[in-house]
Write a structure and sequence with these properties.
single chain, alpha+beta, 5-stranded antiparallel sheet, 5 strands
């Protein structure tokens, strides 16, 4: 179901609780909401009012990739970035990494499976932004 975006800083600054397989409906709402917006690249569950550690990223073909409980394990190639956010009015500056390794859970056949994967460039930047959302860090 498509949800309205939340701009309430009290919700956005609350660290998210770990997500479970029972949160699949939240993940689906997140995907539905993300894919309903033009030019949106990523969305975290707290941006739709749910403080669970779930994020979704959209690709150029209109598909979404969902991560439960994402954590950046390490990064290389630090750089300064100016980022916009769907739930913040002003762009902000942040230090990001060009390459990151992320641990996350993926829902497979109704169960969360642990994964690790490397991301680079723009995808790495988006994931770092989403992990900040999960930590309740206002970007």
């Amino acid at each position: 179901m498509i949800k309205e975006l939340v701009k309430d800083e009290a919700i956005l600054s609350t660290p998210c609780e770990p997500a479970t397989a029972e949160d699949a409906a939240i993940a689906q709402d997140l995907v539905d909401t993300l894919l309903s917006m033009d030019d949106a690249a990523c969305l975290a569950a707290n941006q739709i009012g749910v403080t669970k550690a779930i994020v979704a990223l959209a690709d150029d073909e209109g598909n979404a990739f969902v991560m439960y409980n994402p954590k950046v394990l390490f990064g290389m190639g630090a750089f300064k970035a100016e980022e916009s956010c769907l739930t913040r009015d002003e762009p902000t500056k942040a230090t990001r990494f060009m390459k990151i390794k992320v641990s996350y859970d993926e829902l497979v056949d109704g169960e969360l499976k642990a994964r690790k994967r490397d991301f680079v460039d723009y995808a790495a930047q988006l994931i770092q932004h989403m992990c900040d959302h999960c930590k309740g860090k206002l970007v």
